[in-house]
Amino acid sequence: MTPRADAEHAHLEALLRAWVRETNTPAPLGPITVALPSTGLALHSEVLHSSPTGWHRFGPVSIGDLPADPVLAIALVAQELGGETADLVERTAESVRRVTGFLERTAPPPADGFLDAEQSLLLGHLHHPAPKSRDGISDRDNARFAPELRGSFPLHWFAADPSVVSFGGGADKLMDTLAGRHIDGRVLVPAHPWQAHDLVQRPRIRSLLEHGLLESLGEFGPEWFPTSSLRTVYRPGAPVMLKLSLGLRITNSRRESTATELRRGMEIDELLNTGYAADTMLAHPEFQIVRDPSWIAVDEHGDVTGLDVAVRDVPAGLTDLRCLAGLVAPQPGPPKLVRIVEDPARWISDYTDHVLVPMLMLYAETGIGLEAHQQNTLVREDASGGAYRDNQGYYLASSHLPRLLAHLGTDHSKLAVVDDAIVDDRLTYYLLRNQALAPIGCFGAFGAADERELIGVLKARLEDALPALAKAGPDGDRLARRWLSATTLPCKGNLLTRLQGIDEVLAPLDAQSVYLDTPNPLLEAR
């Protein structure tokens, strides 16, 4: 197949997976039809691999007797479901075009294993209809800024008057070090080059420039590499990574930090430094929370402008850590995890013990839930340990709020405080469906193991962890027991979320995405 044909089929498969999941349609082996009554048409394909975890694989897709085009297919499905059809159609076309370019790339992989995994997400999310849509980035800029194209670039620096700058954790002095220069009476603030070009056209930033409170210094310094999130940049040998605001619409949201999110990393850093999660860290030294201990932003009266950066510590043992999404990412060939793991059952067992269970124990002990989807989860290739990253993705179950505030000696938390039941639902999707079941589906879809047997391994390790979880906190085994026994579990619907036009960064947490109940995959264990 050609890169274009591979890209089109990947989008059609993602659409079918989303349709099957979000309409609760069975997908047994054999022919499958998606009826579209409003037009009298239908999508036809064949299920080549029926997956209890949702990693179905499909044969060629047709509309009637003609090969299906993914843009036409999404238009027909969107019309059937209702919602913002035109926007999704446009973004699907853009995503197909970008993926085609990624598959045509010829650059060799970097020697840096961490960076290689960050740059390996060529086809994108398994259940998103437009996984590589990046609304607003030109093809020329894409070559510099896309991790899939081995992009790299120097940072764009601004010099700001101290009166319009806020910061925490000593980030002001660190910026001088990273920039390799100091300007008396000014504070240096870096930006992603795309963001810098966009910011100078915004009225608030333009006013600061015109009044001499901000000066654009341009791009200089060493090259930084975009990671899988695009806006977090990495430089081999640097003491930190930088999470930059980036006003592109990537999948469902524009990626600009809020003032609360910038400060959230410092709160987590303080909590961990003062022993708030001591029992979890003691029981699982092989698992770590990647710290975002400082930040800096150009703001006005405490209101951030889009010129800001969260500083991320380089985690211990970085050379051995890999982004989980990069290991399981679907490609024209088998994912890397399938190629490097000889014993999938042992790998799933170790992964559950050393990555998933520590996250559950942290929640049981502290009420802090991690939005640990595949891109936010780092793992050693042998599954002997891992890490979580992302200062945005910290939930706090409201029942734990009084204890956390007493520990901090304050009356307000920067974490996303919501009802316990909502945190349970979110963690069910992110920790179980999106993260822990992904390697199981990956092994099964490419013939390395039987998914139901691997689900059985996962269940057995969760069952063995129940006593420790129960001991970690009041009702600490509640979530794991739900996973092990419930008939249905909540699942995020990416197709429906996109059709409703929800920005998941700005929406309130209880309406952040479309969630629906779907069959519990763990009941498929063999």
Description:
The protein has 526 residues and is an alpha+beta fold. The protein has 3 domains: 133 residues, no CATH class; 126 residues, no CATH class; 208 residues, Transferase(Phosphotransferase), domain 1. Helices cover 40% and strands 23% of the residues. Strands 8-16-17-12-11-10-7-9 form an 8-stranded antiparallel β-sheet, sandwiched between helices. Strands 1, 2, 3, 4 and 5 form a 5-stranded antiparallel β-sheet that branches. The chain is globular. The mean pLDDT is 94.
List keywords for this structure.
single chain, 526 residues, alpha+beta, 3 domains, 5-stranded antiparallel β-sheet, 18 helices, 40% helix
Furnish the topology, listing elements before pairings.
Layout: H1 3-22, E1 30-36, E2 41-49, E3 57-58, E4 62-63, E5 66-67, H2 70-81, H3 85-103, H4 113-118, E6 134-135, H5 139-145, E7 153-160, E8 165-168, H6 171-179, E9 187-191, H7 193-199, H8 203-210, E10 214-226, E11 232-234, E12 240-244, E13 246-250, E14 253-255, H9 259-273, H10 278-283, E15 287-289, E16 294-300, E17 303-313, E18 321-323, H11 324-328, H12 336-340, H13 344-366, E19 368-370, E20 377-380, E21 386-388, E22 394-397, H14 401-408, E23 416-418, H15 420-445, H16 451-472, H17 478-485, E24 488-492, H18 494-499, E25 515-519
Parallel strand pairs: 15-21, 22-23
Antiparallel strand pairs: 1-2, 2-3, 2-4, 4-5, 6-13, 7-9, 7-10, 8-16, 10-11, 11-12, 12-17, 13-14, 16-17, 18-20, 19-22, 20-21, 24-25
